[in-house]
Every structure is written in C-alpha cells, then in structure tokens.
C-alpha cells in the first residue's frame, strides 16, 4: 500500500508517463532541478562570504556575494532552460540477434533560438547517464543508446533520463521520457549448427555441395538475382552509360530441390528456443550460400525465397514465435 | 625565439586551452594581492603559476603528491616565519593565495576544478580588506566574468565554442544577474558587524589627529590631502569662517607639549553638563562620515549638542566638551550632529575649577610672562576684550604665517613671540593661550579641523587632513563662558577662508605658474573634474561601502514613501510580471505577417468568386486567378502576390530579402 502510494506519488511528481507516441516537447512542468554537490558547496561559500562581509563590513564584499549569488540563480534558470522545450522523437531501431546490444536511436530537436550544450542521456534504471550531446539552435542531434538483449522478441526502450548541468554546473536539471520505440531481437543463431537440411542432391551426398562452384556462364541480370551472384568483373568492363549491363553468374545445379526449414521437422525433444536458434542459424546459412529457402514455423509458413527482405521476414517470424504481436 | 614560441603554442588541445583559461582567471584573482603579500610569497606564487603553465603547454604530468606536500608545508612554515603566527587576517590571506596556487598543481577531477574556482571567489573577497575603490570593483567584475567563463568552459562535452562566445555567455549571465544582485544589495537584511572581535590587525595605521600638540605635530597633517571626514548639511550650511570642527581640547602644558585632561562623563553628569550649555543662534543639522583609521574623537561642528549614541561605536562626552569615541577602526563611521554656532558654554564654572586652566609650568618663558603682566594691567584697566584685542593686534601686525617655522628651544613661547615671529596655528594658539593664562584668564587650546571644501556636484563638504587646525578658547566670566579666539585668523585671515596648504606659496607644477593656478582655481575644468571624481568617490563610499543597517532602513523607508507602501510595490511587481507573461504569450501566438496577408488576399479572391479550397495551394489559385475577368494589371499583381507568397512560404530562406513582407502588402493593395 505504502509502496504503491509512493510509486504513484513519484509518478505524479515526475510526470512519469507510459509510452508517448510521436514527438514529445519537454515543457517546463517536465523539467526538474536540484543543486548539484558543487552547487551546495557554492551555497556554503556564499554564506562564508556573507559572514566575512558582515564581520569586516566590506561593502564590496556584499556586492561580490550578492552578485555571485545572483549568478547562481541565473545558472539555475539557464540550466532548466537548457533542457526545456527540447523536442524528442524516437528514431529507428534495427533488429538485432538476442544477446547483442539493442541500439535505440533518439532524436533531439531544438527549434528555440538558444543552443543547447552538454545534454546527457541514459536509461533511467542505469544511474549516471552515459551519452552527451549538443543540439544547436534550429538543428537536431541523434543519440544511440544501447542495451543488451537477453531473449528473442520485442524489447521496448526503457524510460530515458535527460540530464544537464550546463552552464555553470551548480544545478542539475533532469527530465524523463518514455520513447515509443522497440527493438526486435531475433533468436540467437545456434553456434555450430548441423548442416542445412537440403533435400535432393545435398541429402544424397551427405553434405551440401549445391553446385555453387559449378559456374556455367553469365546471363543478363534479372530482378531477384542475389547480389552475390552479380558478375562484377564483367559489369566493370563497360560503363552502364556506354551500354554496359548488369550481368549475373549462372550456376549449374543452383536450383536444387526445395530447401524447407521446418520447425516441426526438428527432433521433438529439442528445447523450443534451441529449435528456433537452429532455424535462425540455417536461415543465415542459406542466405549466405544464396540458396532459396522456405520457412515453416507452427502456423506460419513463408514461401520459398531469398534476399534481405525474405531473410528479415523469416527471422521475424522466428523471433515472434509463440509471442504476442506475431 | 618567437617562432619557437608559436610552435609551442600551436593549435592548443581543448584540455590545454581550458587549463590556460583557468590559470588566467587565477592570475586575475592573485595579481591584486601581490601589493600586500610578503615578497617571497609573491615570488613563489609567480613561479608556481609559470611552472603550471609550462606543464600545461608541454603536456607533461602534474607533480606527484610527495613533492607537493613538502613544498606546501615549507610554504606554511614561511608564512609562520613571516608573521610569527598562522592566525589573523594577513597570514590567512597569504595562506589562501598559496593554497590556490598549489591547488592548481593538484587538479585531477571535476571536483578539484570547483575547489579552484570557489577558492578564487573567496580570494577575490579577501582583496577587499586592502582596497575597495571603484577600480577594484571594475577589476572584480572582469574577474567574475573570466571565472564564470572558466567554469562554463569545463561544462562542455562536445564542441567548445570560441572564447569570445563563451565570454559573451558569461557576460550575459552576469548582466542578467546584475539587477537581482542590486536588489539583494539594497534589500537583503543587513546586520551590523563585527560578529566577533576583529583580529588586532584589522585597523590600518593611517595618520590622524593625535591627542597632544607639540612643535611639529601638525606639519605632518598639513601636507596630507587624505580625507579626514565628509559632511552633508541637512538644509543650510554655516559660513566657511564658522566651520570649526572641534576635536581634542588641550589644557595641560608642560613647557613643550599640550595634552588633554578631559574626562568622559557618566550619563547623570552629562545631564548636568548639558544644562551649562546655552544655545542662542540658529542651528544646523549635519551628517558626518568619518574615514577609517586611528581615531579617538568625533569631530563636531562647534558647538554641537552632545551625542548620546552613535551606531557602531561607543561614544562619550567629556567635561572639556569633546566627543570621544572608542576603538580605531577600518570602517567608516557615520553620525549626525546638531550645531549652534552661537552659544554660551559652561558660564557657571566655579573659580576653584577655573584654576585648572590657569596653570603654567614653572621656569619657562620669562619674557612672555613680563608681556603678559602688561596685558593683565591693560585688562584691569580697560577690560578683557580690549586686552585680548591688543594681543591679537600684536599678532596681526608683527607676525608671519609659515608652515616651515624655525626650530624652537627651551623657552619655546619666548622664542616664538619675540625672536622668530613666524609660525602656524599650533604656535599661535599655544602662545595665545600661554599669554592668556599668564594674564589671569582661563584658556585652553582646541584642536580640530577648520573649513572644508564644498563639492558643488553633490553638496558634500570634504575635510582633509590639511584642514587640521588649532585655536583657543578663553573663559570670559560667568556671562559668556568659553569663547573661541583664533589667533591664526588674525595673522592669516585667508587661512580661515581657505585651507591650510593653500595659504602657502606653492611650488608650481613643472615650474609652470599657469598650471598651479589651474590646480587652485575652483572654476577651471581641472577643478570641475576633480569635484566630479570626488563626488563619484563619495557616492561610492556612501552607497556601496557604507550601506549599513541604518542606511538601509532609511533608504527602504524613503523608497516606501516614494511608492506609497510595500503592498503597492508588490502589486506593481506583480503587474509587471503579468504584463511580461502576457507579452510572451502574445508573441508565442503572434501570427506570421505573411499568413495575415495571405488570409486577406483569400478574402479578396472570395469577393471575386474564387474560394480557396482547403487543400488548394498558391499555384493552383494562380491558375484560377488568370481565368478571372479582371484588368490585366490586377491579375498580374495577384499572380505576383501568389508567386511571392509561395517563395516566402516554401522557398529557400535566401529568397527572403529586402523586406518581402512590405512588398507582399503592396502587391495586396494593388490587387484590390
């Protein structure tokens, strides 16, 4: 009860919000400020200076004390202003393989006439912010915050804490922002996975010699040809402007019988995560060797294909297997 | 050499330039201290700063702690040897300067940086022990800005803007802070210091009037242009000849030195004493600001009502009508007085008491005694006034005023009266009192200041040490009491109208007579400038340096009177804040003039039957405008308007030159 109240109070005071889609403007109500440790020491210094001025009746001492004190107050205002009215927008978030660092791209835009310096960003639950960024007036800056992924699936960006001490470092202003940003973590590819379950030739030979080396000639490029099959040497001979053409290498036996990566075909006693890992490893392997492949995970079937988009689709299906939002 | 230096300087890395800026700030803080630090300390500070600069330029490592620690201990020992103590103001300031210098060599973390900057701020304050002039204040402001710049510089994490921009930012911080600082200065509740006993060295040993008078004691003051005190009359001021600022009263003479006998009176006795003072003429009220220094007396315009209480000092009144004050001080003292130039003082003294002021040392000045016997006979024959007049006439006719008198021997008065016949106030007043006493009239010497220079700019009178003066008082029977006689005035009447030093033939500056005239002429531009500077200085002293609790109270009262009351003031402030807020809101919502013009244009078009569809742009409107059945020039203006609008709204910023909004509006008018 008490903890709940405290959490509610904290959420209310600091205006902690759930996901905020789109751009967020840091209005003054969202910027909080407290003196830093040097700031507290500075107050002590001002007190000593005041007492000294009173004791020795130093007229100029009063001037110095009050003016430096006022400078500290102006610093408080400027520090808050250094954060306030920044516009925050989530950027792109590239999928990663589980275990790797998820990279969250965040954009800070500044359409006020004041340059912003030394704005620190970090995830709220990580303590001290790690990244600092300047945002020029009328410009924007991007920051990439990373966080390790532990398992496959969506990883939402944690709450971000923005912090600044600029200009004098006597006050620290901070604000919270929950960016609407998530990263897809693909299953971690199995290390030293078994060979691809190729049917046809590969299966008979025991190992996938799918005729990648059986170069039989070149032909005109056709949309859908894998990039790695482009015959660069031939292409480079003639500039496209002079009538040169994109040409692809043609391989014998490249069109092996269907490569189907089927979840259900894996040994049933394997852990589901291991199965997904193995499939991910196979997808990458097939992609690397430019073997068209189809994927079948549970109810989801992906027709045979090759290329980045196909690969991403397959990995995504693997990542979201059995999870919400699949 | 220069080539080598520039190569060394080269493009500085950020770290180096930041550290050099901090060094510059420290030098600005430390430099004013060199004037009063022991020379070895200044040398150590200079060398260490140079060392620090060299470390920075070369990029070598800071010295290790095992090297710094013994060096700083050694320096502390040096401070002890210099002052024989580690406590007190001077050793404290010396230690702080050394601490700051060594701290610069021991900077590793952000925390150390703040320590250096905070120490600098404090050292900046300690400099005010020694100087609080306007120049010091200007230097202080510059130093604050450089310190703030250094502090800001260390906050940057990415690109660091050029120094000029950082200085501008620091300057802006200071400028924005300034009004608040002024408000705090005026309104922050002041406490009368000191909070604890000042260390003994707090009072500086500047010269002042002593409480004895022996040959030559005045000459040291006569040539000093140092300000003794300043006076502001509330209302009218008495004539220059009446400006006798009474200080110590000297009634005992040992043949060479005159000294005081006055005793402080208890409050009860003071009441009785006040009954013996009768005022007859007009009164003048005035405010004196006494300069800091050695002090024993509050100089009061003759003759002022006794002061019972002066803020910030213990004051007592003596039976010789002196206003005494305790404690030398390094701060100014302000007090108010009410003077009555026409008075009868202590007319009712009984004859026994009067014996005090008739005593003369035995075995001195036989010739004077003989002369006094003649005066006494004259007194018996024709009365006191005639007799005194005869003495003064003798002075006037046969004596000469000089600040360089001959040395006088054992019978000083004899030698002065009958041999040298040259002297200045101390000789005249001393000899006069001697004659009076010998002739049977109670008399005494009064020291103080005479005259003062009125500043036409602010109306303040400045009384300098060179205005020091000595005159005499004679007790003229139970009707008139103590009456002032100034024998110097008889000899050199101009002395009383002008100041002491000015009566003397001065050396012309650079041997040019014109210059000396310029320097003395009250209407010359030089004098005007001098008065102007003096007025600024005085305002500085009155409002910045001596803004104490009572002055604050008065000023706030005056302010309150000027603004009705505090509530009105608060209401005004609130209104101003609201107005500011409203303005900000308004500018926030202020429409772009281009949009306003476009809206007006669309309304015009609607009258011609062309209604802008919500999703319609200027290009499509332009196409429709061309089909309108209107004069050719009107259509041209309209299409031009739309073209310009499109360029302003969607074009590159470079298109927006030579006041496009005005052109837009004129096109709008043409298409009407």
What does this structure look like?
The complex is a heterodimer of chains A (about 325) and B (about 675). Chain A has about 325 residues and is an alpha+beta fold. Chain A has three domains: about 180 residues, Immunoglobulin-like (Sandwich), CATH 2.60.40.10; about 100 residues, no CATH class; about 35 residues, no CATH class. In chain A, about 30% of the residues lie in helices and about 30% in strands. In chain A, strands 2-11-10-6-7 form a five-stranded antiparallel beta sheet. A four-stranded antiparallel beta sheet of chain A has the order 1-3-5-8, with no helix packed on it. The longest helix of chain A has 25 residues. Chain A is elongated and about 100 Å long. Chain A starts with a helix and ends in a 7-residue tail after the last helix. About 5% of the residues of chain A have low confidence. Chain B is elongated and about 130 Å long. In chain B, helix 2 packs parallel to helix 6. In chain B, strands 1, 3, 4, 7, 14, 17 and 18 form a seven-stranded antiparallel beta sheet that branches. A five-stranded antiparallel beta sheet of chain B has the order 10-6-2-16-15, with no helix packed on it. Chain B folds into five domains: about 160 residues; about 130 residues, no CATH class; about 130 residues, C8orf32 fold; about 40 residues; about 80 residues, no CATH class. By secondary structure, chain B is an alpha+beta fold. In chain B, strand 12, helix 14 and strand 13 form a beta-alpha-beta unit. The N terminus of chain B is likely disordered. Chain B contains 26 helices and 18 strands. The chains are: A alpha+beta (about 325), B alpha+beta (about 675).
């Amino acid at each position: 009860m008490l903890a709940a109240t405290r959490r509610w109070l904290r959420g209310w005071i600091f205006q902690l919000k759930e996901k905020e889609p789109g751009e967020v403007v840091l209005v003054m109500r969202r910027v909080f400020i407290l003196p830093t440790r040097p700031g507290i020491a500075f107050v002590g210094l001002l007190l000593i200076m005041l007492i000294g001025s009173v004791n020795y009746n130093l007229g100029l001492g009063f001037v110095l004390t009050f003016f430096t004190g006022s400078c500290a107050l102006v610093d408080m205002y400027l520090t808050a202003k250094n954060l306030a009215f920044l516009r925050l927008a989530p950027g792109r978030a590239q999928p990663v393989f589980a275990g790797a660092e998820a990279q969250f791209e965040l954009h800070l835009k500044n359409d006020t006439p004041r340059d912003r310096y030394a704005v620190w960003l970090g995830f709220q639950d990580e303590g001290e912010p790690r990244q600092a960024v300047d945002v020029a007036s009328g410009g924007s800056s991007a920051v990439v915050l990373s966080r390790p992924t532990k398992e496959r699936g969506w990883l939402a960006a944690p709450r971000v804490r923005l912090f600044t001490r600029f200009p004098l470092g006597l006050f620290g202003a901070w604000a919270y922002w929950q960016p609407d940003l998530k990263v897809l973590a693909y299953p971690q590819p199995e290390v030293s996975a078994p060979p691809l379950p190729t049917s046809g030739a590969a299966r008979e030979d025991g190992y996938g010699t799918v005729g990648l080396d059986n170069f039989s000639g070149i032909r005109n490029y056709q949309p859908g040809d894998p990039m790695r099959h482009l015959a660069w040497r031939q292409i480079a001979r003639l500039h496209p402007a002079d009538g040169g053409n994109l040409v692809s290498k043609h391989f014998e036996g490249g069109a092996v019988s269907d490569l189907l990566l089927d979840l259900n075909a894996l040994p049933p006693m394997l852990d589901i995560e291991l199965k997904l890992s193995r499939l991910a490893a196979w997808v990458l392997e097939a992609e690397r060797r430019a073997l068209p492949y189809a994927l079948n995970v549970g109810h989801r079937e992906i027709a045979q294909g090759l290329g980045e988009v196909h690969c991403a689709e397959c990995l995504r299906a693997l990542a979201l297997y059995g999870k919400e939002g699949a | 050499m220069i080539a080598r230096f520039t190569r060394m300087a080269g493009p500085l890395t950020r770290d180096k330039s930041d550290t050099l800026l901090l060094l510059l700030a420290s030098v600005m803080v430390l430099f004013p201290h060199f004037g009063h630090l022991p020379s070895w300390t200044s040398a150590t500070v200079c060398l260490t700063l140079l060392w620090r600069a060299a470390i920075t330029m070369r990029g070598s490592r800071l010295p290790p702690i095992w090297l710094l620690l013994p060096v700083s201990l050694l320096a502390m020992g040096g401070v002890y040897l210099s002052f024989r103590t580690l406590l007190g103001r001077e050793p404290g300031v010396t230690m702080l300067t050394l601490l700051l210098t060594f701290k610069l060599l021991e900077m590793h973390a952000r925390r150390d940086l703040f320590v250096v900057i905070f120490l600098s701020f404090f050292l900046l304050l300690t400099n005010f022990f020694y100087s609080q002039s306007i120049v010091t204040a200007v230097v202080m402001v510059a130093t604050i800005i450089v310190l703030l710049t250094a502090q800001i510089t260390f906050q940057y994490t990415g690109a660091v803007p050029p120094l000029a921009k950082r200085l501008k930012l620091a300057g802006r911080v200071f400028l924005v802070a300034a009004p608040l600082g002024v408000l705090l200065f005026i309104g922050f509740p002041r406490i009368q210091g000191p909070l604890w006993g000042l260390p003994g060295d707090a009072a500086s040993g500047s010269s002042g009037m002593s409480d004895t008078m022996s040959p030559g004691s005045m000459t040291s003051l006569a040539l000093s242009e140092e300000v003794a005190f300043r006076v502001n009359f509330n209302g009218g001021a008495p004539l220059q000849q009446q400006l006798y600022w009474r200080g110590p009263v000297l009634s005992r003479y040992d043949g060479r030195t005159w000294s005081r006998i006055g005793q402080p009176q208890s409050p009860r006795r003071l009441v009785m004493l006040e009954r013996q003072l009768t005022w007859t003429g007009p009164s003048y009220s005035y405010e004196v600001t006494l300069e800091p220094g050695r002090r024993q007396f509050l100089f009061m315009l003759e003759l002022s009502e006794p002061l019972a209480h002066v803020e910030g000092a213990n004051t007592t009144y003596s039976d010789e009508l002196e206003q005494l004050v305790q404690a030398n001080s390094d701060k100014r003292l302000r007090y108010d007085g009410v003077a009555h130039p026409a008075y009868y003082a202590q007319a009712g003294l009984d004859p026994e008491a009067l014996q005090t002021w008739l005593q003369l040392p035995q075995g001195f000045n036989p010739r004077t005694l003989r002369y006094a016997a003649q005066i006494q006979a004259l007194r018996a024959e024709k009365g006191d006034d005639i007799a005194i007049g005869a003495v003064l006439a003798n002075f006037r006719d046969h004596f000469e005023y000089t600040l360089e008198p001959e040395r006088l021997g054992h019978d000083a008065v004899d030698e002065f009266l009958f041999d040298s016949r040259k002297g200045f106030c101390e000789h005249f007043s001393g000899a006069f009192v001697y004659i009076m006493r010998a002739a049977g009239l109670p008399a005494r010497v009064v020291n103080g200041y005479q005259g003062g220079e009125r500043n036409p700019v602010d109306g303040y009178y400045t009384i300098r040490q060179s205005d020091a003066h000595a005159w005499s008082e004679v007790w003229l029977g139970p009707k008139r009491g103590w009456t002032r006689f100034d024998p110097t005035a008889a000899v050199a009447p101009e002395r009383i109208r002008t100041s002491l030093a000015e009566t003397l033939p001065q050396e012309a500056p650079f041997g040019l007579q014109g210059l000396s005239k310029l320097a003395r002429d009250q209407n010359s531009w030089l004098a005007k400038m001098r008065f102007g500077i003096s007025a600024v200085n005085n305002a500085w002293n009155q409002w910045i340096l001596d803004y104490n609790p009572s002055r604050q109270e008065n000023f706030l009262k005056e302010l309150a009177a000027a603004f009705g009351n505090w509530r009105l003031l608060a209401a005004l402030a609130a209104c101003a804040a609201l107005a500011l807020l409203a303005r900000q809101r308004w500018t926030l919502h202020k429409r772009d003039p281009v949009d306003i013009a476009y809206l007006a244009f669309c309304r015009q078009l609607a009258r011609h039957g062309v209604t802008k569809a919500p999703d319609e742009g200027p290009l499509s409107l332009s196409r429709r405008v061309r089909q309108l059945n209107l004069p050719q020039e009107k259509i041209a203006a309209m299409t031009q308007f739309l073209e310009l609008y499109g360029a302003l709204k969607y074009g590159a910023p470079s298109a927006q030159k030579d006041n496009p909004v005005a052109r837009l509006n004129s096109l709008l008018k043409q298409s009407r």
